[in-house]
Amino acid sequence: GKILIYTKDQGAALGDLFGIFFEDINHAADGGLYAEMVRNRSFEFDPIDRHDYDGLTAWEKVELGEGKSSIQVEQEHPIHPRNPHYVAVEIIEAGEGVGIKNLGFNSGLPYREGETYTFSMYARRSASFDEPVAVRLEGIDGTVYGEAKVMVTSEWTKYEVVVASSATDFSGRLAVVTKGNGTLYLDMISLFPTKTFRNRPGGLRDDIATMLADLKPKFMRFPGGCLIHDGSLNAGDRDSMYRWKNTIGPVEQRPPRKNNWRYHQTLGLGYFEYFQFCEDIGAKPIPILPAGSDPHSQRYVPIDELGPWIDDALDLIEFANGDASTEWGSLRALLGHPEPFNLEYIGIGNEEIGEQFFERYTYFHQAIKAKYPDIQIINSSGPFAAGGEYERGWRSARDNGSDFVDEHYYQSPDWLLAHYHRYDSFSADDPKVFLGEYASWGNTYYNALAEAAFMTGLEKNAHAVGLACYAPLLCNIDYVNWKPDLIWFNNHQVFGTANYYVQQMFMHHQGDHLLRMVTDGFAVPAQPAGNKERIEGKLLVGANLNEVVYRDIRLINHETGEVRTLTDKVEIGETEEDRRHRSEFGRNAVVGETGLKSYSLSMKAIRKNGSRGFIMFF
Ligand code: AHR
Q1: Which of 12, 178, 563, 598 is least buried, going by the fewest C-beta atoms within 10 A?
Q2: Residue 38 located in a structural domain
Q3: CATH of the domain at 372
Q4: Which reaction does it catalyse (predicted)?
Q5: How far is the CA of 289 from the centre of ligand 1 (A)?
């Protein structure tokens, strides 16, 4: 056997191969990366989001001493029409103070001794009201860790104050109380740690953002996932598809949104913040837009009404890259970023399988390429199980000249091992693969190892695979929609899984060029001097989906011609469990000698019912 390494320019460029995919699933944004500590800050929670939500979800009444009050959510005089609800605290008896307190995410609001928190709210009062309003960082029993007072006027006004905590308590409460008389109106009650990632006000949780930055991803796909295309076609609906224009500008003017992962989405983490975060961590932004097509509820915008949807895509590119003389570029400058965000990629659709989507995709593709020929467009394809290996997506991509096709798969570790060669036969002349979502089912070391093996298969096929990202990225342990996930967190801690460290290893060591290697048989690598003289390896044979019987597995030493029978027969069984336990054999069975030796393996195999076999030596 031999290994031939060709020169650099005969290999393929690895480009932006490994990145991350952020979707607000598992409370990844609200109650996660987005550092807002108050849950339901704008009293916009609604049964539309989830059956057990209402405007007062995560809020409790406070009545101290003889205090008595009535609390209700109103909408007659909102701070902005897109943020219609606010709370009215009618003070019946002031006692030692009345008001409301927020329960936060997880066990409560996390306070740390000596740290400061930036509180803000919109408030107004009725004419008779003349007392200050106290803002308190509290424990669950009402112990006050920090307090500030503000005088409120009778017009909606934004108040902001920084409060320090005298204690560490991860189950805290935020109380807003007063001894005034009359009615106090409150909205957008917000508390952020003053220390956020890059110290941006209203920014990102430093610990989670740092975990993401530490991966050193080449790109970030966002904001979904199913999140983008599940929903109604009207951008003004609470349950509309994800429309990026709803997510920019002052947070109190961003409309509430039903998140299809069965919770409420504030959109406080919006497109401007996504672009800024990408820039902060050196990742190229890859926004994914809905194509007016929801394959789940089968809602499709009529073709002759596609215009505004296509405009969304064109305007987004202008928002990211246009200069200050353009409409959307000037808005970006106004929001604080005169320099472009240098958008290179855009994705249309997510996990699409229907003809209705592909019909619409063509209109998007043509309009984008006509105006922005250098923008690389990502077409879509269904999840692996749905579409006969994605054929429809690939056909559309070839017909339209898409730059990428987005493939997704969540499978067993053995499936990933069995599909190590998936892209070997893909042509460099085709659109490239964007593996926009993949994972093996679990966060064990074995899952991580299988993913690592699979990722070497992505690397070695850089001619065909352009971009790849694990999914999902983040999960709040108390709000699990989906697992496994790459990073787990609660309201004050964050943990990387074994899978995280595999991703990190690959991202930290991304090459620029693939050196083409040709092997004949396989080679046992030379051992450095001083190492043991005999090389021991292990052979893994497996099966995917169903049974496989292997017979007469033999190892042939190319130099001596020696033929060694490793085993007469291995039967890989029917169940997943069975396959996992019985697929590994021959530990310490393959023995070579120091120096580069080469071997061939011969075997006979019979498969049942379309199963696939695979073999690894390591
Ligand atoms: O990653 C979780 C979900 O899996 C994504 O939202 C969707 O695209 C896929 O089905």
Answers
A1: 563
A2: no
A3: 3.20.20.80
A4: Hydrolysis of terminal non-reducing alpha-L-arabinofuranoside residues in alpha-L-arabinosides
A5: 14
Residue of the CA atom closest to atom 1 of ligand 1: 472
Which pLDDT score is estimated for 540? 61
Same domain, 124 and 169: yes
Which helix or strand (DSSP H or E) is residue 358 part of?
A: helix 355-371
Residue showing tokens 């609200």: 30
| Of residues 455, 517, 457, the one with CA closest to residue 8 | 517
Q: Do 180 and 202 reside in the same domain of the chain?
A: no
Q: Within its chain, how far is the Cα of 252 from the centroid?
A: 24
Question: Do residue 300 and residue 421 come from a single domain?
Answer: yes
For residue 134, give the CATH number of its domain: 2.60.120.260
pTM, rounded to two decimals: 0.84
350 C-alpha to ligand 1 centroid (Å): 8
Look at ligand 1, atom 3, and give the residue with the nearest C-alpha: 225
User: Quick one: tokens of 580?
Assistant: 């996992």
**In this structure, is residue 48 part of a structural domain?**
no
Integer-rounded Cα Rg, in Å, for the chain is 29
ipTM of the complex in this document: 0.99
Q: Taking the mean position of all CA atoms in its chain, how far away is CA 386?
A: 22
Ligand 1 atom having least distance to the Cα of 227:
6
Q: How far is residue 344's CA from residue 284's CA, in Å, rounded to a whole number?
A: 8
User: Residue whose CA is closest, atom 10 of ligand 1?
Assistant: 226
pLDDT confidence of residue 235: 95
- Same-domain pairing of 153 and 267: no
Catalytic residue, from 23, 131, 318, 351: name it. Answer: 351
The answer on 357 and 384 residing in a single domain is: yes
Protein residue whose Cα sits closest to atom 8 of ligand 1: 225
How close is the Cα of 43 to the center of ligand 1, in Å?
28
Residue 543 belongs to domain spanning: 521-617
Same-domain check for residues 352 and 300: yes
Q: Which ranges of the chain have pLDDT less than 70?
A: 1-11, 385-389, 515-548, 557-559, 572-603, 605-618
Establish whether 351 is a catalytic residue.
yes
What does the alpha-carbon distance between residue 506 and residue 503 come to, in Å, rounded to a whole number? 5
Distance from residue 508's CA to the centre of ligand 1 (Å): 26
